[in-house]
Amino acid sequence: MPSNSAASLLAAALRDEILTKRYPPGARLYTQRDLQRRSGYSLSVVREALQLLQASGLVTVRQGAKGGVLVRQTDHEIITQSLSALIASNDVPHESVFESRQELEGICAVMAARNATAEHIADLDASIERAQSLTGDPVKFSLENVTFHRVVSAATGNPVIIAVSTALSDLFFEGTTSVVYSPTALAATIRAHTRIAAAIKKADPEAARVAMARHVSGFDEYMHQTRQLGSSR
């Protein structure tokens, strides 16, 4: 059996074991020698299997006496990496990324209006207040814009939605620190955030969806008009 096929089989078996037993993040599973003895595969196959698991984000492999295979806390970065590879390898156009973001942001706004806590609402208000003080610093303003959208995502209360929307946000807003905002665009963003937050406070899903859709569409239109479309991808 080719080494890479054996490594894939071993990686799949280990993945099933980790997911089935629900090991907590940081749990130490085995050393490479332990795996070699247990599986009957060569050390090179064991190492290939562990590389596959590391690439999937399930484990971290540490060397030394206190090392071994440790269960990793998974996060949205794994999804971001997969989406990035998908977009790059398939030459996915900006329009598809934008459409996905627009739909998902709308879903987030609707769910946030239903599920937001007092803490989420306070975080939205705080983000708007910070943005108002950052109109003279486009870089920090752009980062605060991302923060606002992530609070909306967190307010959904759905871990899957949060992970996917955060990953898509990472891709969409990658490079937005170089976007040049006009004073009009800055003011429009703050007004949009204020409308979205107000709808969420009122627990009005439809108003939140409409406000978010207008905001996302307005941003994309601005990028087209100012010929900065490549920066938003």
A few lines on this structure:
The protein is mainly alpha-helical.
Overview of the molecule:
With 233 residues, this protein is mainly alpha-helical. It has 2 domains: 3-71, Arc Repressor Mutant, subunit A (Orthogonal Bundle); 76-232, Up-down Bundle (Four Helix Bundle (Hemerythrin (Met), subunit A)). The protein is 70% helix and 3% strand. It has 10 helices and 2 strands. The protein has helices at 3-21, 32-39, 43-56, 76-89, 94-115, 118-132, 138-154, 159-172, 183-201, 205-225, and strands spanning 59-62, 68-71. It has a two-stranded antiparallel ribbon with strand order 1-2. α1 crosses α3 and α6 (118-132) packs antiparallel against α9 (183-201).
Q: Which overall shape is indicated by the principal axes computed on the Cα atoms?
A: elongated
Largest sheet: 2 strands, antiparallel
Cα-atom Rg, whole angstroms?
22 Å
**DSSP, total strands:** 2
Q: Mind sketching the topology for me?
A:
Layout: H1 3-21, H2 32-39, H3 43-56, E1 59-62, E2 68-71, H4 76-89, H5 94-115, H6 118-132, H7 138-154, H8 159-172, H9 183-201, H10 205-225
Helix pairs in contact: 1-3, 4-8, 5-7, 5-8, 5-9, 5-10, 6-7, 6-9, 7-8, 9-10
